[in-house]
Design goal:
- With 288 residues, the chain is mainly α.
- It has one domain.
- 76% of the residues lie in helices and 0% in strands.
- The protein contains twelve helices and no strands.
- The longest helix has 25 residues.
- The chain is globular, with a radius of gyration of 19 Å.
- InterPro entries: AA-Vitamin_Transporters (IPR050638), EamA_dom (IPR000620), EmrE-like (IPR037185).
- It comes from Roseicyclus marinus.
- Pfam families: EamA.
- This is EamA domain-containing protein.
Length: 288
């Protein structure tokens, strides 16, 4: 039960990142790449502080940690760039669909054999997500934006797979955020021509810091705590709940209007996840 509660808390943190991003970037309080950079800096600062208080050292040059930093950077930058040219709904569909594929492929590569029930549950949940976020009318997306979100999905999926072997969640997450901060500065300087964080309001900066320090830094450290205790396919499946929680957060905190489609699609997503995670009967239990 504790593992279920921790996993649910992580999903709420992930969804909160989406709500905070929409409140800051969507309202023009801060630029997309500016938000990503401040998010990385705030997460790194808090995690390094906690690590220093705990044992005082943070090795950064371990290959696993460098790869984790690269994948986290791929996710953060790809995510921010993609949302310059697509709405939140389609972005979530591409992101979590890509994460799902990456995590299930990783599960197979790591020797997991997800049961048929989990594949069916994933398909149901993904179809519910598509129903939730698909816009009306024709859809035209720039190829570079789709590619950016695809790279973000690949980065997050691999980052999560790396976390399955974590024995020091706080240290691994802190190192990843430090590397993401360095890479984020470089990306933003290239994009802005040498002048980072332009035209950001105090509200936008506060939302980015909250996202970085709390729902990203602490949330991702908790994710690395949870990941070694669940399978890769389970990790991929439960993340499909994030857009539903984010939609609910938008209704509560951003005054977004609920709809019957939101309720129906949310039920389909959560029902698919529940079906995929429901324990299978063994032959012994069915005979008893």
């Amino acid at each position: 039960m504790k593992l279920v509660a921790l996993t649910a808390l992580v999903m709420v943190a992930f969804a909160a990142n989406s709500v905070l991003n929409r409140a800051a970037v969507g309202a023009g309080q801060i630029g997309a790449l500016d938000f990503a950079l401040v998010r990385a800096v705030a997460g790194a600062a808090l995690l390094v502080l906690l690590i220093r208080l705990r044992h005082g050292s943070l090795p950064l040059l371990q290959p696993r940690r460098m790869l984790g930093g690269l994948m986290l950077t791929t996710y953060l930058v790809g995510f921010s760039l993609a949302y310059l040219a697509m709405d939140a709904g389609l972005g979530a569909l591409i992101l979590f669909g890509g994460v799902q594929v990456t995590m299930f492929a990783g599960a197979l590569a790591l020797g997991e054999r997800p049961p048929a029930r989990r594949w069916i549950g994933a398909a149901l949940a993904l179809s519910g997500l598509a129903w939730l976020v698909w816009p009306g009318g024709a859809v035209s997306l720039p190829l570079w934006a789709v590619g950016s979100m695809g790279f973000a999905a690949l980065g997050w999926g691999i980052y999560s797979l790396i976390g399955r072997g974590s024995s020091d969640p706080l240290g691994d997450t802190g190192a990843a955020f430090v590397w993401a901060t360095v890479a984020g500065f470089v990306a933003l300087l290239v994009q802005s021509g040498g002048s980072p964080v332009n035209d950001a309001t105090w509200a936008g900066l506060a939302l980015a810091v909250t996202s970085g320090a709390v729902t990203s830094g602490l949330g991702y450290a908790l994710w690395y705590e949870v990941l070694p205790r669940i399978g890769a396919s389970v990790a991929g499946l439960v993340q499909l709940s994030v857009p539903v929680i984010a939609a609910l957060g938008g209704v509560i905190f951003l005054s977004e209007a609920p709809s019957l489609r939101m309720l129906g699609a949310g039920a389909l997503v959560l029902g698919g996840i529940a079906w995929g995670l429901w324990p299978q009967r063994t032959s012994g239990s069915s005979a008893s």
